[in-house]
Amino acid sequence: MRDVLGDLLAVWRAGGTVGVGTVVRTYSSAPRLPGASMVVGPDGTVSGSVSGGCVEGAVYELATDVTATGVPVLQRYGVSDDDAFAVGLTCGGTIDIFVEPLSQNTFPELEALAEDIVHHRPAAVATVIAHQDPAWVGRRLVVRGDEVTGALGSSRADAAVTDDARGLLAAGRSEVLTYGPDGQRRGLGMEVFVASYAPRPRMLVFGAIDFAAAVAQQGSFLHYRVTVCDARPVFATSARFPTADEVVVDWPHRYLAAQADAGAVDARTVICVLTHDPKFDVPLLEVALRLPEVAYIGAMGSRRTHEDRLVRLREAGLTETELERFSSPIGLDLGGRTPEETAVSIAAEIIARRWGGGGRPLAEVPGRIHHHQHQHSQLSDSLTRY
């Protein structure tokens, strides 16, 4: 919903109703992750995507119907045995999409949720997408810190889902949870989709050089919250880095240590060290490589620079295990030379680290195209539609 929030809010504030289709579950090579949404406005306009084009037409029709009837629907789309190019995913995947009417009446908390997202405050939305009692479907809870708004249908269900939603929010994951019809931990009868709106992961770019501007642009494109940091005020200016969320003038190692102490660096944070100057990058890497958990640390420089840096870091007391945590020279071997091409190679390595990709041409890699962080349950032999 994050990507379509502006269009959704415009209609919501005007008192209108939109049909919203949200990917809640995927199997195999589905092109979009859970949480991807498509909005169909009252005038027929569309924003967002749930499949990259495969089933958008069918979801459009369903969203139009749901807006008219007010009855939400959970629909499964997969490859048809009779015609793989019928309404389904030509990529071979299967997705479950929950389509619902959204308005001030059905989602009064939407504007407050939007404020949370804009200001990087974590919040989770838990929506009943399937229940043996149709009256429960579409009910939701909004969970943020110790505050919970909304109701599902019973205090038992509210308590169980709230606890689990907090856990998913802390992990930054969105997924479907299954309960008994009254929120029992064991049993079937209710499915709840928890959409986690954790703050965007951070990209910390150190070194206010021309390559940093290109890396910041790539980071913004990949939905990171980008900070560029350099100790030289003449170079570290917002005008030079218009796509960065913030530009900080400080010694890199001091800034990173302060951010870590403040709890602003986590397991999703990526760190790009582009200074390739020992007086900056060695103290910075001392801090970075001793952080308990980050997603990626990469450092720019030639192989000779890298070897010199390793010597200095070993002299500073870093262990071989700590030194293995960073990638240097930074980026994948794409043959790029310009700042923009180099930034693409850095972004490609970050993506590969996140999903476990090898960086080889897909034509040379057997098996599935998309990598998954978490193993999904096997698809049932039946493609029964809800």
Automatic annotation (TrEMBL):
Residues 376-386 have a biased composition (Low complexity). Residues 365-386 are annotated as: Disordered. It comes from the Bacteria. Residues 12-78, 120-180 form the XdhC- CoxI domain. Residues 203-350 form the XdhC Rossmann domain. This is XdhC family protein. It comes from Mycolicibacterium hodleri. InterPro entries: MoCofactor_Util/Proc, XdhC_CoxI, XdhC_Rossmann_dom.
